[in-house]
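Memo to structure team: turn this sequence into C-alpha cells by end of day. - J.P.
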Amino acid sequence: MKTGEPSAAKELYRQLRDLSWDELWTVEVPRFNRASADERMKRVAVIRAVGVVFPECGPPEQEEEVRRWLRALLKDPVEKVRRYAMTALPKLGADLSDEAEMLALLQKTDNEREKRFLAGSLEKIGGAQTLAATRGILPQTEQKTRAAVTREESPGSVLLDATLTEFKDVKIILRGRSGLENVVRTEVEEVAREKFRVLNVSKGLVAIEPLAPFSIRDIYAVRCFGTVGFWLGTSQGPLNELAGLMTSPTARRLLNTFTEGTPRYRLDFVSKGHQRAAVRMLANEVYAICPDVLNDPRSALWAMDIHSLPEGETVELRPRLTPDPRFTYRLRDIPAASHPPLAASMARLAGRMENEVVWDPFCGSGIELVESALRGGVRQAYGTDLSAEACAIARNNFAAAGIPSPAATFICRDFRDHAKIEGLGPGSVSLIITNPPMGQRVPIPDLRGLIADLLRVAAVALRPGGRLIFANPLRSECAHPGLRRQFRQVVDMGGFHCRLEHYVRD
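Reply from structure team:
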C-alpha cells in the first residue's frame, strides 16, 4: 500500500496477506465480488493480496482462473479497482492476453494516473505488442520493453578478448579497497606495463591509460583491484550533459567494441541511494540521443556509474562480469570469506620464492592459498580450519583453480595444534598467509588472545626468513622478538578497518 493510505486499509491488507490461498480465493474473493460499490472500495486490498499470495502458494492449475478474474477487473468502472488489477497481474508473470487487455485500456483511458500505472505494468510484462503500441509515445516504456525483448532474443555478453584499437582518449579507473592503492599501482607497473601506464593514485582508486591496443582481459591481468570502469567525463551541469557523456563517441566506441549484441546498461548514482526520478529522466535522455543503447535495470551487461565529486559528477562505464573472470575458481564461499582482490594483494605483498611451503591457519574458502599458488614457486600448500565444511570448500576451490602444482592439504584442525600435522612442525613453513576471524559477523570470545596465539604460532612454525602476511583486526604490537615487522597498512574492510601486516622470521 502507498504511504498515506488509511491505516484501516493497511491493516486489512496485512490480515488478507496472512490468509491461506484457499481461504483468500474461496472466501474473500467471492465476498469482494458480491460487495456493493462502496464495500468493494473498502476491500480493494483483496486484489493486491491475490497478486502476492498466489505466486507464493497458489496451485498452478488455478493460474488461468486467477488471471481471468484480474483481467475482468481491468474493465471495472472504478479506476482504483482497475489500477490494483493492473498492478497485480504482472506478479503472475508475462502473458500475451494480459498485455493485450492492458494495451486496449491504455488506448481508451484519459486518466493520467491510470496511464502511468499501465505503463509501469507493461514495462514488466510487455513484448512485441507493447513495443509497437508505445513507440514514440511512451519512451520509457518503449525502452524497457525493447530491453526485455532484446534480452530474451539475444542476451549478448561483454567481450573479454575484443581489442580496442582506437585508445588515445581512453582513461581507465581501477577501484578497490582504500589502503591497497599502492599495491594495485605496483602490480600495474610490473605485470601490465606494456599495455598501461599509471596516471594517478588517490584514495580507493588507481587511474591508468592504455599505451597500446588492449582488451578487457588485459586489464584483468591485474588481480588486486576490485572493479574497473572506463572514465567518460565529468559534468557540472544538468542531466542532459550527463546523457551526452553516456552517449559520447568514446562511450559508443567502447560499447560497440566490447559488447556482443545490443548494449544494455544499469544506471547507478553511486552513494546517493535510490534516485528513481533522476534515473528515469536520465535514461530517457540517453534513449532519445541513442536508441541503440538501452537501459535495463534487470539484467544489464554494463553499469553506468555516476560518482559525485567536488568537481562535479563523473560517469564511468563498468562491465558487469559475474563471475569475475579472475576468480572463476570460487565455486563456493563461506560466510565472511576473504575478498579475492584482498587475498591477491596479500599474495603479492608476500613476494615469490621457490619451493615455498605455504600455510593458511584459517583457510576458509581457500582464496589466499589459491592466490599464493597462482604466483608460482609453491611446493606444498596447507589449509587448516575449525570448520570441516570450509576445508571441503577450500579443497574444491583449489582444485578448480587448475594449478598443476603444488600439492594441497586441507585439514579440519585448530591451528594451535599445527605440530601434530605432518609437514607443519617447527621451522617448516616459509609463508603463513591468512585473513583470520575478525569478530564482525561471528563473535570471537577472545579475539586479542586469538591474534596473540597466531603470532606465537608463526614464530614457531616459520623457518628463518619465513614471512607472515595477515589482516590484523587489532592495533596490537607483536610481542615475539623473532618476528620483525616490515610493512603495515590500514585497509578498509567494508565498514571497519584492519591492518595488513607483513612480518619476517629472524
